Amino acid sequence: MEFSVLTIFPDMFHGLWNYGMVGRAIERKLISASAIDIRDFTGDKHRTTDDRPYGGGCGMVMKPEPLARAIDSARQKSPASAVLLLTPQGRPFNQEMARSFAGEDGFIMVCGRYEGVDERICYDLVDHEVSIGDYILTGGELAAMIVIEAVTRLVPGVLGGEDSAALDSFTGELLEHAHFTRPPDFEGQPVPDVLLSGNHREIEKWRFESSMVRTFLKRPDLLENRDLSQQEVDLLKEWCSRIESIVQAQSARGTDSSSGGE
Ligand code: 6GU
């Protein structure tokens, strides 16, 4: 996997290339990554990358010529790479896109600044437009870093644990179960007994229920949009019947306001 980032702030990527999981993946040659200065492809002494918009209005637009030259140069070095433009108008990035990107040879990532890039860059030079969410950043650099981080951890061999990436939240469209590490008691809050029991069947069951509870409470939309397994349907039914019996017990005691209790 090869990432070539086109940006007017290549130094912003120093941290990403040199620390953590991405840094290690580069060191181990599982990925390669470079940040290329778009200014190196300008033709004037001021190394201008932006200009005023035709039709007037505020803000500046990234000029097409330096960008086109930078993309051409990156494509000559990495002909199998797809060109990705980071823009708030792009397709919202998610785990499914990260997984599909992880199977590609590489990406030339264009980080827009100012109000955007000249539209003619999008016509035939760009393969994918990607956004990281519905809010506006002043440039695509942080978005590119997020995409690179999410894709790199899915490249085979990058993560140590055999299947830790496969178990992550969103891959199976349920949130991950709760995690605990030592100490067994932290400020009076104990780790659930079952996790200390060594009973792997019971631990698996607890983790499944923890995933379901967390998804239901934090992201019910993920359950609503999911084809539930029989085990998941059974658990939801069990919760329903427990909730019903709690409500019925309240009515029987006459403390439920809808039953006319005092
Ligand atoms: Cl990819 N770029 C910018 N400038 N803003 C964004 C974004 C990208 N994704 C969300 N907001």
List key phrases describing it:
single chain; elongated; 262 residues; alpha/beta; 41% helix; 5-stranded parallel β-sheet; two-stranded antiparallel ribbon; binds 6-chloroguanine
Would you count the extended β strands for me?
9
Percent of sequence in beta strands: 15-25%
Query: What small molecules does the structure contain?
Result: 6-chloroguanine
Distance between the termini: 68 Å
* Largest sheet descriptor: 5 strands, parallel
Strand order of the largest sheet: 2-1-6-5-7
**Backbone shape:** elongated
**SS element count, helices:** 11
- Please tell me the overall pLDDT: 94
User: What Rg is obtained from the alpha carbons, in whole angstroms?
Assistant: 25 Å
Backbone structural class:
alpha/beta
Strand and helix order: EHHEEEHEHEHEHHEEHHHH
The percent of residues in helical segments reads 40-55%
Low-pLDDT residue spans: none
How would you characterize the overall build of this protein?
The chain is an alpha/beta fold and 262 residues long. The chain is 41% helix and 16% strand. The strands form three sheets. Strands 2-1-6-5-7 form a five-stranded parallel sheet. Strands 3-4 form a two-stranded antiparallel ribbon. Helix 4 crosses helix 6. The model has no long low-confidence stretch (mean pLDDT 94).
SSE order and pairing:
Blueprint: E1 2-7, H1 14-18, H2 20-27, E2 32-37, E3 50-51, E4 61-62, H3 64-77, E5 82-92, H4 95-102, E6 106-111, H5 120-124, E7 128-131, H6 141-152, H7 164-167, E8 185-186, E9 189-190, H8 193-196, H9 200-218, H10 220-224, H11 230-253
Parallel strand pairs: 1-2, 1-6, 5-6, 5-7
Antiparallel strand pairs: 3-4, 8-9
Bound molecules: 6-chloroguanine (6GU).
